[in-house]
Amino acid sequence: MSFTVYLSGEIHTDWRDEIQRGAEAAGLDVVFTAPVTDHPASDAAGDHLGEAESQFWRDHQSAKVNAIRTRTLVEQSDLVVVRFGDKYKQWNAAFDAGYCAALGKPYVTLHDAGIVHPLKEVDAEAQAWCTTTDQVVETLRYVLR
Fold this sequence. Notes:
Protein name: YtoQ family protein
InterPro entries: YtoQ_family_protein
Number of domains: 1
Order of helices and strands: EHEHHEHEHEH
Radius of gyration: 16 Å
Helix content: 40-55%
Distance between the termini: 7 Å
Oligomer: single chain
Largest sheet: 5 strands, parallel
Number of strands: 5
Organism: Brevibacterium daeguense
């Protein structure tokens, strides 16, 4: 069995690489996709559309351009992993989880116990809550074998 897994969320740590290495070591047939993880590039995604009159409109333009990639890859995925870090608020990750729920797309969350309460609705719709990348890999191993 083969899976396409979209890795959504926090971009400041190497959690994506950890999952990819773990899946490869386990011999899993998984194709991983992700948003643009270069923060300045993501923020500038809409700059080619013209100079925005305020930061709000620059962010708005870039969010729409980024959404082309995100929506397409989420819709094409078999599973989405949504990572919430503890340093920054990942509102985009919460949006991705909500989008998955609306589509009926399976997703798992990945976050520390310290932010369980603010994510209770997001976790309630998830098929699993993982606290480590190893748990994500083990979930994939179970599903794919």
